[in-house]
Amino acid sequence: MDKQSLAKTTKDILNKYNIKLNKNLGQNYLIDRNKRDQIIDFGNITKEDIVLEIGPGIGTLTCELASKAKKVIAIEQDPTIFDILKERLENENITNVELINDDALNVDFPEFNKIISNLPYQISSPITFKFLEYDFDTAILMYQKEFANRMKGKVGTKDYSRLSAMLYFKCEVELLTNVSAESFIPKPKVDSTVIKLSPKIPEFKGELSKLAISEINEDDFKLYSKFTKALFQHKNKKARNALIDSRHEVSSLDKKEFKNKLNSITSTKINDLLSERVLKISPENILFLSKQLDPILN
Q: In this structure, is the dihedral angle defined by the CA atoms of residues 188, 189, 195 and 200, taken in order, positive or negative?
């Protein structure tokens, strides 16, 4: 019955405004009340929390979040859906939601401390990288199941990716629950997974040999980000060739100068790592390479 009532509420709103959802825009609306409530419960929301929601749609999560949080910041790009949500909030006398009609990838987020979102799947990767630029207490996020698995990808496996390498130093990633495709309208082709991101506290102590997982400062992370992006554009190649092919990400040198600089390196450890396939290089060693190579290549 619970599932039916949320499904009916959703369909009634869509019918009232004659809205046809576009799967290509990630407009898959959750109609399983139990899963919706579970997602919100995972956030442990209190009246002190300011919650960021990306892609609120017609307010399936938004209205419930607003009843528990101090404030909700909801960013919806579709102007028609935005107007429907605005009207719904007014009709239900919900006054603690700040609605923003914009592209979440292009707007600066107002201050918040938690993120809870059923994310539009087509922006999963860039929006996750954007989240990493902000300080937050916890994030409860729904992704396509395959994408969620890549977030926890281990070194040397097919799921190891730029995404998992970037998250490694920033957040603990916990897979919380799977959500069947049957729980949405329109029904997507794949199942989803709800994950929890818990930021690691940066505590840099300087000695690379003693580097703990959480110990990386912001300047080093920016450098690491550049090299990670370059390397994982060619993750099945050897690191040397991957960097040469994506040299524009890490240096302004032309190809010949870039190769000459790499060939001039005498360090056995650096050369050994450059000879490894990207897929087999740990985040710690990518950080080591980035810190060693940057002054050589720039």
A: negative
Q: State the average pLDDT for the chain.
A: 92
The length of the chain, given as a count of residues: 298
pLDDT at 226: 96
Give the tens place of pLDDT for each residue, 32-76: 999 999 999 999 999 999 999 999 999 999 999 999 999 999 999
Q: Which residues, in sequence order, are CB contacts of 107 under 8 Å at separation 6+?
A: 75, 100
- Measured between alpha carbons, how far is 286 from 272 in angstroms, rounded to an integer? 12
> Does the model's pTM come out above 0.85?
yes
Q: What phi-psi label fits residue 26: left (phi over 0), alpha (psi between -120 and 50 degrees) or beta?
A: left
In tens, the pLDDT along 159-200 reads 999 999 999 999 999 999 999 999 999 898 899 999 999 998
Q: Do 132 and 198 form a contact (C-beta atoms < 8 A)?
A: no
With a cut of 70, list the residues of the chain below it in pLDDT: 1-4, 23-26, 201-215
DSSP string, the chain: -HHHHHHHHHHHHHHHTT----GGGT--EE--HHHHHHHHHHTT--TT-EEEEE--TTTTTHHHHHHHSSEEEEE---HHHHHHHHHHHHHTT--SEEEE-S-TTTSPPPS-SEEEEE--GGGHHHHHHHHTTS--SEEEEEEEHHHHHHHTPPTTSTT--HHHHHHHHHEEEEEEEEE-GGGEESPPSS-EEEEEEEEPPP---S-GGG--TT---HHHHHHHHHHHHHHHTTTTSBHHHHHHHTGGGT----HHHHHHHHHT---HHHHHHHTSBGGG--HHHHHHHHHHHHHHH-
